[in-house]
Design brief:
By secondary structure, the protein is mainly alpha-helical. About 60% of the residues lie in helices and about 10% in strands. The chain has one domain: Arc Repressor Mutant, subunit A (Orthogonal Bundle), CATH 1.10.10.10. It contains six helices and two strands. Strands 1-2 form a two-stranded antiparallel sheet. The chain is globular.
Length: about 150
Amino acid sequence: MTEMIFKDLAHELMNPLYCSERISYEDSKFPSGKTEKLVMIALHDQDYMYPSVLCRMVHASSPRMAVILKTLEERGWLTRTPDPDDFRKTIVRATPDGILAGTEFALAVEETMEEKLALMGEDDAREYVRLQKKFSEVLKKPKKVRRFSK
């Protein structure tokens, strides 16, 4: 019963934290860098994404994302095709092998979080997840512009 609680909490925590520096990506059996793994985690359960969205999600520049997508395409984990509605845009889709890789990465991250949450104990883990989700919502709110007088 207790293991399921931490598994559920880890699953809840994954969305707001999957880009966090605190998560280990070294446990996967697939050779790849951290940003490449984050891209595959983002793509594995989506029909498609645009490179600009992936850039924002994994905090990568457009030139860096172009290199990442080329590497992952050469590995056979994704395809890039022109958007039929707007040929200026590119659609990125995970291949079946890419879906497998993204799922593997996501499960490895979730397992690591589950282990760390279990070390905290149930009450602290629940509180941490609650606060992290709350903080994630706060981060989504628009920034207030501060004006300084001269």
